[in-house]
Fold this protein.
Amino acid sequence: MAQWNGGGDSGSETRVPPGATDDEERVIRESTDVVKNFMAEAYQHDSLNSVSEYGSTTPPAPLLTNFTSSPLSTEARVGRQLAIIGDDINERYAHEFNNMISMLHLTPDTAYEAFAGVAKKLFADGINWGRIVTLLCFGYRIAMDVLQSKTREFAKFMKKIISYVVRFIVTERIAKWIAEQGGWAAALAADAIPSVGYPTLFTIMGLGILCAVFAIVRARKG
């Protein structure tokens, strides 16, 4: 499959937190390209399956198909590996993702706060690769929701979603955890990603949705 150019300029997009180790800085530099590759692979899977959960063919998204092939980069290999697992999550829990996203009523002003509120619940009691894959899937489903209804705005919004996911990885010290595992490449190990109780994770994320909706309503009233 075609891959997003692994070289990227992710280092210029994301600030490195003070006191970060060299390994953590490397993870942060690679994160944008890992997330891009994950999104592109997930989109290709949806396109090959041809019919989305909305009952129509997946709309075109040149942002996710027209890029330089670099399949051997670490970022591309990790994105592909995580997307393989994410495909199953997206298919099995598409309904849950869509219900959560529809409850959030995302706008440019509330998108990151809502996304982060749900994601924080997901990682409240620990970090593991399964939860990281779920985070990437959640970002992807948000982007697909926009693609279904506002194709012209998709490219701009996709870039925002990628930046949201990477920003969360950095600010919530997930990058530090990944660095401690050996970096993004550690996800390529055969036993790196254990079986995860995804229904439990979706219950946790559901609580995050309720908190995010409450916060948005309160902010609007204020």
Summary: Confidence is low (pLDDT under 50) at residues 1-12, 51-56, 210-222. DSSP finds nine helices and no strands in the chain. Residues 42 and 84 are 8 Å apart (CA to CA).
